[in-house]
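Dear Dr. V.,

Thank you for agreeing to look over these. As mentioned in my earlier message, I'm a first-year student in the group and I'm still getting used to reading structure tokens, so any feedback on how I've presented them would be very welcome. I ran two proteins. I've put each sequence directly above its structure. The first is here:
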Amino acid sequence: MQKPTNMPPKTSGELDIRGTLVRVAKVGDEDYICLTDMLKAKDGEFFITDWLRNRNTLEYIGIWERIYNPAFNYGEFATIRNQAGLHSFKIGVQEFTERTNAACLVSRAGRYGGTFAHKDIAFEFAMWISAEFKIYIVREFQRLKAREQELVGWSAKRELAKINYRIHTDAILRNLVPPAVSRAQTSVIYASEADVLNVALFGQTHRQWQEANPSLKGNQRDHATVDQLICLSNLENINAVLIHDGLPQSQRLQKLNAIAIQQMRILSEVGTRKYLK
């Protein structure tokens, strides 16, 4: 478990809990949720210190720290815990973390600051607000993580397409680029072959796509779906083989288009079955 630094956590997402926006931040590889934002959903005037002074809260934090934080100061924690329940006892998050070297809480001042807690602790804090609020925040957090995984999958497929593009361009270099041509002439050949794949899969050359989408940056591949990136990766490998075999560009385009239609139909059916489960 990485000890939080003195820098404010970097927000990685936001949860909308029935109109209450709650920031989610990364501390190392762990997710921390903003208690300051969550507190807005609790009726009445309450403070995080009201929750922290509770003996049950301290017991839970102590167990969590014992499991995940070998640098936790048990001596100081025992002193604090023994005061819990006393009418005069009150302790702030920053004082608590400084005295105990706790890793589950981060408190930072400033415009983008606030008190953040490791998700395990934040869910317990949500229960202090209300049982209903905890159910909603757990559900929304799971939805956020699922969305993150989808983006990771898209990025992985995009990187795979880039790797296969290198195989594709190598086949072009070895088989289609004549010796002693200029860099500009070479670029024309590469662009021409890239458009073979663009037309086979997307039905448009790069220039046609740009003219049809003047407000979008990048190219078709930057805005492709995961299924399209999977298919594109396959087409690049197949086209490299067809180039090595000496097939003319017009024949390769027809073959690649037929393969793209078949693969996208299969990928679409797989996706449909997945969503129907």
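The second protein is here, in the same arrangement:
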Amino acid sequence: MEKKRATVRYISGNTARQLQAVPERKRRERQEKQKKELSQSVKKNREKALQMSMGYVLFLAAVTITVVVVCFNYLKLHADISATTSNITNLTSSIDTLTAQNDALDYSINSYTDVNYIVRVAVEELGMVQASKDQVSYYKSTESEFMKQFTDVPEE
């Protein structure tokens, strides 16, 4: 393949050539023409923007309906959550009231218990005998749990 050599032309002299100035009238005509072309394209774009196809209208309607349904469901769920929270608060208050009443009744019942009467009935009517100190055995457990006794506890 041969390489083409670029030919360079030299201009003799010490000044560059002066460009011809575009007359003012031509420049104005060009600007007016550009404005007309621009305004015509702008008008066409505006007309296209004002026209909506049936598919676009249906799409917008479907999106609007979907958004309304989602918003309605959100508001309904929010109201349900608020009602449930209110119900939980009321039930918690009711439980606290019942617990306080139960504790008061338990204290009242325990205050009427006469230990001396129980001991007297056990000894006199049922023939029970009070245990002596040497009959009581203490068992140390590492855990405080319920346990079944299968054999006697060894004495120390």
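From my reading of the second output: The helical segments are 24-50, 54-112, 115-124. The CA atoms of residues 84 and 90 lie 10 Å apart. Does that match how you would interpret it?

Kind regards,
E.
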